[in-house]
């Protein structure tokens, strides 16, 4: 009888724990989606708390959390403090990744590009692969006389925001197009929604080029990009880490920081942080904070983040984030 009672108590305890486990939902940027999904699996294994994240683009992430739909939003475009105040939001960086230029050129490896040439491609001034400006950057390559198939994001995308930040070093690009999540491209473009679909389109379209997050781009050619030190740098974890070391995030401006064109030898120029947005009135803010504080400190989580080609938030910044969340969520 005693044994049956103990089993029943244990069953009730497990059932109570399962019923009270957190079930969090987030939506937004597809840039960090692979790492958030992997971290959610590990977190569930360790805590039985469920975190689900779906894409849709940074614009959707901002709009959803502003309307208090879901528990958190993801955006690769940081919001300025005055915008956060207007929308009653708080934000912090959760992971650092990189935008890469994937291409599909038969028998072509080690393609080198810079911001000026890319600005000309995406504004429609350069339309063929063997254009003199591309050839000048690649004197050892035999470039084909084929039209460049230009692939872009159709949704309001933080990946587009970071990419156009790189292009904005070009004065003509900056004055005409600026930096934005959505662009009215003058080039003849193929628009698709989300990083995964950009990857698919590049892989199946010969002579194409597109910008996308690094973790989606493992099965295609990736261009070396010229950085602010005038070096052509390969997109890889070493160059991403070099670029992220001097981020210097500050809680005083709600961690607003754009990381593109980072200085320093060997720095990849198209690195960006992906941010989490919380509504100040969110009912599960503490549970969301617990998840991301865990993600920035747990060894298994940090290893998984790096294995997917992202850079974790450094320990100094994560300590700032923890203090910031404790302050903001206690009000």
UniProtKB/TrEMBL annotation:
GO MF annotations in UniProt: phosphate ion binding
Keyword Membrane: no
Keywords annotated in UniProt: Phosphate transport, Signal, Transport
InterPro entries listed in its UniProt record: ABC_phos-bd_PstS, PBP_domain, Phosphate-bind_PstS
GO BP, one annotated term: phosphate ion transmembrane transport
Keyword Protein biosynthesis: no
Residues of the PBP domain: 17-299
Family matches, as Gene3D superfamilies: Periplasmic binding protein-like II
Endpoints of the signal sequence: 1-21
PANTHER family referenced in this protein's UniProt entry, alphabetically: PHOSPHATE-BINDING PROTEIN PSTS
Subunit structure: The complex is composed of two ATP-binding proteins (PstB), two transmembrane proteins (PstC and PstA) and a solute-binding protein (PstS).
Family: Belongs to the PstS family.
Protein name (database record): Phosphate-binding protein
Classification lineage: Bacteria, Pseudomonadati, Campylobacterota, Epsilonproteobacteria, Campylobacterales
Gene: pstS
